[in-house]
Amino acid sequence: MNLYEAIGVRHSVRKYSNKEVSEKLREQLLVFAGKASPLNDRIAVAFEMIDNRGKKADVKGLWKVDAPWYLALYSEPAEGFERNGGYLMEQIVLYMTTKGLGTCYLGGSTVKKKRTDGKRLVMIIAFGYPEGKLCRESSLAKRLPLSELCVFKEDVGETMKTVLKAARLAPSAFNSQPWRFIVYSDRIYVFSKKETGLFRGLKGLAPQAGTGRDFSIGVMLSHIMLAAEELWLELETATEEQFASKVYKNGTYVATLTIRP
Questions:
Q1: 120-168: per-residue pLDDT in tens?
Q2: What share of the chain is helix, strand, coil (3-state, %, to 5)?
Q3: Which of 75, 125, 160, 180 could in theory staple to 156 by disulfide, Cβ–Cβ 3.0 to 4.6 A?
Q4: How many CA atoms lie within 13 Å of 133's alpha carbon, on the beta-carbon side?
Q5: What pLDDT is attached to residue 198?
Q6: pTM of the model as a whole
Q7: Which of 46, 211, 45, 200 is CA-nearest to residue 123?
Q8: CA-CA distance, 5 to 9, in Å (whole number)?
Q9: Rounded to 10 degrees, what is the CA torsion of 32, 36, 41, 44?
């Protein structure tokens, strides 16, 4: 199983077994995290692995899941750091899936110990070997159909549909799927929906990043990137000023993705 294949089977795991995650595997996870592709390589990030085998880790949150290990992502608070964090973290989560590990995003959770380098907590994931099934059928994922996520301006081929299906399966906070697409045969205009009162309230409860739409948008963009790589497509991401400068009633322009064979 590779990262693209993991997109279709990965799901949130909330119960973990006592099976040990070996030191060698933990080291592999950190090496992969350090090499994962960022959206913006100018944003400095750091990862911290937190041992909870003794059930004493200083991780707190409304939706905390008890797991033997946690991985925390920290970032300098530069423009776009939440989106960059989601893009990175989803690659790591999918890599963990390929290694037989279950994962769960812990939006709104915090770590008691504060960093001294100015980096902010973006997200924590729980991980370990699952007590139940690692995988689920993609058809069981509770996601909106493409017909509700996309406005198709032209007929599109199976290649574009495959990319969009990968984007559709991206996890998001409360399965909100805060993205919408305007689709042509060779490009996708990505928009994010405006945040609801729920997400604005969450930011008040958990002022660190990772509880809202920008992190989720980054997760979704990583799925598009992985699908393009799997299909040997060239993916070009651009921000077009003519769209970025406009005010939209129901959302915000994110980027234009051009896909070429």
A1: 999 999 999 999 999 999 888 999 999 999 999 999 999 999 999 999 9
A2: 35, 25, 40
A3: 160
A4: 6
A5: 53
A6: 0.93
A7: 211
A8: 7
A9: -40
